[in-house]
Design a protein that fits this description.
- There is one protein chain.
- This protein has 209 residues and is mainly α.
- Helix content is 62%, strand content 2%.
- The chain has helices at 2-5, 36-46, 48-52, 59-78, 86-95, 100-124, 130-140, 151-159, 164-171, 177-202; strands spanning 26-27, 33-34.
- A two-stranded antiparallel ribbon has the order 1-2.
- α4 (59-78) crosses α6 and α7 (130-140) packs antiparallel against α8.
- The longest helix is centred in the last third of the chain and has 26 residues, at 177-202.
- The radius of gyration is 17 Å and the shape is globular.
Length: 209
């Protein structure tokens, strides 16, 4: 039942997203400026992926990501004129000697990087189960930044992933797995590009406080 409710008839999970990273504008003529509203909507939509993993252990992971979306969105709502793109939002917030949204974006980017690396590892290493891919991604993205109190919570989630075949069945029907693979590849490439842009931007001197 859960597999059928996660995507529309004849479609895939990607069709159920309110916003996809594929449709997030990145302005290459303006320093790869990323549209704030579209990016936050896409990040929010991504969190439904954790529901497909089917374990309450992933609830803290999802809630952490949504909490960071809220921090960035609160700044956008408070100062919309300075927040049309993520880079502008960060630089303008830091001018005010505040950094709540900037810190939220850093953690959100780490969470998205974790998700992207887990799925990239799994699609590139076809014999690996999800637990292997998610553990590898956690080790290289979030784990170095987590406290000893948080690490066990996230580690438990990595061990609670479903079997690979069951997870991909929730992304689309068995007869549509070629379509799932194609759409996942396109979505993942856009997510990786945006994470890369943000990692590079957030590492700049002017983004420190």
């Amino acid at each position: 039942m859960a597999a059928q409710s996660s995507f529309p008839p004849g479609g895939t999970w990607f069709d159920s997203l309110r916003k996809s990273f594929v449709n997030v504008p990145v302005d290459s003529a303006n320093g790869d400026a990323i549209s704030t509203s579209d990016f936050l909507d896409a990040a929010e939509s991504l969190t439904t992926l954790f529901d497909l993993l089917g374990s309450v252990a992933f609830k803290p992971v999802k809630n952490d990501m949504l909490g960071n979306v809220k921090k960035v969105r609160d700044r956008q709502l408070a100062s919309p004129g300075d927040s049309s793109n993520l880079q502008s939002l960060v630089l303008n917030e830091l001018k005010t000697k505040q950094h709540t949204a900037t810190e939220g974006l850093i953690w959100l980017t780490r969470g998205l990087d974790f998700t992207a690396q887990a799925l990239r590892h799994n699609t590139s290493n076809t014999s690996d189960e999800l637990s292997t891919s998610f553990r590898a991604a956690y080790t290289s993205t979030l784990k170095p930044h987590h406290s000893f109190l948080v690490k066990p919570v996230f580690s438990a989630a990595m061990s609670a992933t479903p079997y690979k075949k069951d997870f991909y069945a929730k992304l689309g029907a068995e007869s549509d797995q070629a379509k799932v693979k194609e759409e996942l590849g396109r979505w993942l490439a856009c997510l990786e590009k945006q994470v890369g842009v943000l990692n590079q931007f957030l590492a700049r001197k002017e983004c420190k406080w």
